Amino acid sequence: MKKFYTILTALLLAVTAFAQSGKELYNKYSDLDGVSAVYVSPAMFRMIGKIPDLDMESKNGESVNLTPIIKSLSGFYLLTADEPAVIEKLYAEVKRVVDNRKCELLFEAKEDGEITRLYSFGNGNTISSVILTSKEAEEFTYICLEGNMDREQLENILAEAAK
Question: Where are the domains of the chain?
């Protein structure tokens, strides 16, 4: 019986570790003092996705069509905290989410005490979340894009934009 409870506890911990999403973090922190918050709904992404071609100009002057990625998004969540106690709580929670979901670190930059990181989470072909964090002494920013983004398509768009 003890083994059963141990296994059940482990399963519940695993489920709660993966359950935390951008929406849940947004709901938990968006109404706190010292937090600025922005949310873009799936309906807005569907409406933007109806635009035939939403192009972004790359460094070499060529245009990159963002419409396929925008259509695949289901949520955009942005939280910026500037209260020290909230910064530490939000930072710790985001770190726990990133660690528990086994997000892949795509990018990290450190400059003058600011640390910026870009993570992705998904399976081989699909990215379900892209998380950007930026931590300074007096501010922490968390941005999460959720959806079912085709990995190859996203990589191609990023490669075109970087040219």
Answer: 21-162
For residues 101 and 17, is the Cβ–Cβ distance under 8 A?
yes
Instruction: Look up the pTM and report it.
Output: 0.77
User: Would you say residue 60 has pLDDT above 80?
Assistant: no
Structure confidence by residue, pLDDT tens digits, 117-147? 999 898 888 999 999 999 998 999 999 999 9
SS3 per-residue string spanning the chain: CHHHHHHHHHHHHHHHHHHCCHHHHHHHHCCCCCEEEEEECHHHHHHHHCCCCCEEECCCCCEEECHHHHHHEEEEEEEEECCHHHHHHHHHHHHHHHHHCCCEEEEEEEECCEEEEEEEEECCCEEEEEEEEEECCCCEEEEEEEEEEEHHHHHHHHHHHHC
